[in-house]
Amino acid sequence: MLIEKNLKDKRKSWYICDRCGEKLTGISRKLVSINYKKEADLCRNCIKALKNLCKGKGKNNEYR
Questions:
Q1: What are the distances in angstroms from CA 10 to CA 6, 7, 18, 25?
Q2: Quick check: pTM over 0.90?
Q3: 27 closest CA partner among 38, 15, 39
Q4: Which residue from 14, 7, 5 is spatially nearest to 41, judged by alpha carbons?
Q5: To 5 degrees, how large is the angle CA 55–CA 56–CA 62?
Q6: What is the pLDDT of residues 10-63, one digit of tens each?
Q7: Among 18, 39, 42, 38, CA closest to 28
Q8: For residues 28 and 19, is the Cβ–Cβ distance under 8 A?
Q9: Which of 39-53 are b and which e, b meaning 16 or more Cβ less than 10 Å from the residue's Cβ?
Q10: Which of 7, 17, 46, 60 is least surrounded by CB atoms within 10 angstroms?
Q11: Phi/psi of residue 5, each to 5°?
C-alpha cells in the first residue's frame, strides 16, 4: 500500500507491506499480481514465506 508518493523520484516513494506492515521503499517492495491486476505489496521475507506456503513447506508462517 502506498503511503507517501514522491513525484520526482519514484524510488523514494514509501510503501507498507500488506502482510507484516514493514515500511518499504520503491525498490525493496515486491508486487504480487494475479491476471495482471496488482493484489499486494510485499517485503522480501513475506515473499519467501508465500513461496514456502505454495510449496507446502510454510505451515509455521501461514498465520503470521
A1: 6, 6, 19, 9
A2: no
A3: 15
A4: 14
A5: 110
A6: 667 888 898 898 888 878 888 888 888 888 889 999 988 888 888 877 555 555
A7: 42
A8: no
A9: ebbbbeebbebbeee
A10: 7
A11: -105, 130
